[in-house]
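Slide 14.
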Amino acid sequence: MKPFSTLLAGLLLVVAGPALADAATLQLTPGKVFTDAAGAYVSVAVKNTGSATVAEAYVTCEFFAGSRSLGKSSTTLFSIVGGVTGTDQVRLLGGTSAKSAKCAITGQK
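Slide 15: predicted structure.
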């Protein structure tokens, strides 16, 4: 009989394996940070380099004024077909002093 830890590790690979493979098919390109009277925003582009459609991709950006974090905001891009790039904006209301943003893909369905 196999130890429980071996069985558990095998189960995790079966369940998490497809999700880990899918994450590699998304490529994030954030744009320049802009500000207006309402706050700050950055355009983001998510390219699906795979062949399957990604139903939802979640992008979160943290906005900074120098090294000081002003806050985080997110967006969801829907139905990104294989080989296509989806675009949207991530906006932080009130972040009028933002100079930069660090963005990442934080999940997908």
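Speaker note: The radius of gyration is 18 Å.
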